[in-house]
């Protein structure tokens, strides 16, 4: 019966999407759930001290760099954590849960008619599973066959300036990436082998072909257009902007500025492509995306996170971040040879950022060495570098700074700078 799994999953997804199963109410009034439990005992062993990382021999990080995956992304809101705990108390059919979550997300984001969403294990996973779905459709044989593309389309077109580490997830499906630079290049690159056209949203200013034109070129050739907008919230409007524009599939990270569970992402797009992406991933067996598992807790946690995130006032959050960054800027700019610039990146990581520039004639160390000294402290202070301000500067964001950490950074940074004044 193994060969039936994908078909069955597909039918599940379709049934759930038809809303007939989602809207169904349990018989009788729903009583408060007796399973709700919160741990009230005393933790013994790991967790005893309250800091699991120190118990494991690690140094925790004061993160002034941003929503970096290598540092753990972001910190979840306690309310979303509490809802994830509720999700952990029951078993549920995961394909049905994905369909129900997608429906709720589409409603919350007011996605255009015919669009839905899928909670994935990250934006990278949204990319891989989205492309798998584009290639295989709902065909069971193809779903089992990829990354062997015999009989399938085999190329994805990308502008040279849009190449990114996450192209690996496209190549994982077996496709070859075809690089282009000009509109003429696109026309000659399109063939019967072309599966889709990929756009990296943050690279919009860098490529010759802009977002709208890229979309038009794809649709004129009857090809799906995928846009990777992983780090491009805030603003929250971006969650629906690219669907409204007509992009067929859009990827976002859940665990960056939205502060969802670290191992979540969103694939937003046209309904059949969303279902086909799900057919290519966990919980469905014998699929390329089987290792990209997303748990019931994360799926529910992502939906809850969106609910909270959409209700937040972005202006208020940005103002608080500027206040924290000003604490740092005001302190270090008093040191001779330090200049501070402020900016908000245009597309990705669109939140308050300061850049600290050091006059090389006034200091015996450069920005990179300053960052290394801070990182070696306990707790470790991790700041960014380069970025908009040029290679020799220190970049700081407050997107994941906790209350009071602005002071800690301000003090530590000015101490290190003063120690190395010449
Ligand atoms: C972070 C990022 C990804 C990967 O996202 P995950 O949610 O960590 O899988 C993909 N594309 C871009 C542009 C990103 O910034």
CATH superfamily of the largest domain: Type I PLP-dependent aspartate aminotransferase-like (Major domain)
State the end-to-end CA separation: 75 Å
Rg (C-alpha, Å): 24 Å
As for the number of domains, it is 2
Strand order of the largest sheet: 2-8-7-6-5-3-4
Unreliable runs, pLDDT <50, ≥5 residues? 1-5, 17-25
Strand proportion, as a percent range, falls in 15-25%
Q: Output mean pLDDT.
A: 92
Counted by DSSP, the helix tally is 15
CATH topology of the largest domain: Aspartate Aminotransferase, domain 2
The CATH architecture classification of the largest domain is 3-Layer(aba) Sandwich
Structural class: alpha/beta
Largest sheet: 7 strands, mixed
Which ligands, by name, code or SMILES, are bound? pyridoxal-5'-phosphate
The backbone outline, from C-alpha atoms, is globular
CATH class designation of the largest domain: Alpha Beta
């Amino acid at each position: 019966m193994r060969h039936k799994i994908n078909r069955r999953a597909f039918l599940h997804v379709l049934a759930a999407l038809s809303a007939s199963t989602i809207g169904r109410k349990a018989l009788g009034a729903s009583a408060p759930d007796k399973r709700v439990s919160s741990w009230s005992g005393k933790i013994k062993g790991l967790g005893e001290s309250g800091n699991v990382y120190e118990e494991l021999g690690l140094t925790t990080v004061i993160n002034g760099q941003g929503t970096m995956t290598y540092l753990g992304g972001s910190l979840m809101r306690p309310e979303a954590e509490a809802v994830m705990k509720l999700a952990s108390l029951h078993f549920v059919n995961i394909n049905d849960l994905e369909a129900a979550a997608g429906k709720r997300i589409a409603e919350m984001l007011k996605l255009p008619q015919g669009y839905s969403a899928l909670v994935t294990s990250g934006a990278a996973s949204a990319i891989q599973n989205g492309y798998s779905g584009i290639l295989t459709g709902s065909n069971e044989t193809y779903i089992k066959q990829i990354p062997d593309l015999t009989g399938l389309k085999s190329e994805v077109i990308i502008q040279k300036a849009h190449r990114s580490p996450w192209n690996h997830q496209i190549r994982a499906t077996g496709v070859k990436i075809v690089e282009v630079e000009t509109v003429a290049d696109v026309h000659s690159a399109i063939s019967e082998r072309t599966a889709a056209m990929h756009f990296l949203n943050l690279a919009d200013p860098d490529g010759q072909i802009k977002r709208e034109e890229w979309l038009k070129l794809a649709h004129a050739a009857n090809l799906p257009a995928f846009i990777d907008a992983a780090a491009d919230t805030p603003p929250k409007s971006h969650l629906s902007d690219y669907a409204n524009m007509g992009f067929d599939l859009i990827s976002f990270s859940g665990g960056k500025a939205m502060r969802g569970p670290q191992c979540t992402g969103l694939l937003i797009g046209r309904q059949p492509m969303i279902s086909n992406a799900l057919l290519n991933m966990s919980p469905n067996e014998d699929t390329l995306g089987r290792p990209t598992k997303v748990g019931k807790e994360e799926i529910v946690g992502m939906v809850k996170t969106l609910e909270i995130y959409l209700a937040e006032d972005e202006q208020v959050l940005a103002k608080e971040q500027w206040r924290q960054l000003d604490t740092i800027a005001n302190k270090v700019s008093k040191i001779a040879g330090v200049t501070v610039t402020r900016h908000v990146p245009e597309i990705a990581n669109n939140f308050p950022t300061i850049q600290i520039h050091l006059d090389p004639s006034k200091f015996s160390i450069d920005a990179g060495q300053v960052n290394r000294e801070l990182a070696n402290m306990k707790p470790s202070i991790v700041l960014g570098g380069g970025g908009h301000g040029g290679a020799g500067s220190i970049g700081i964001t407050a997107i994941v700074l906790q209350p009071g950490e602005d002071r800690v950074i301000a003090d530590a940074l000015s101490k290190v700078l003063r120690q190395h004044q010449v």
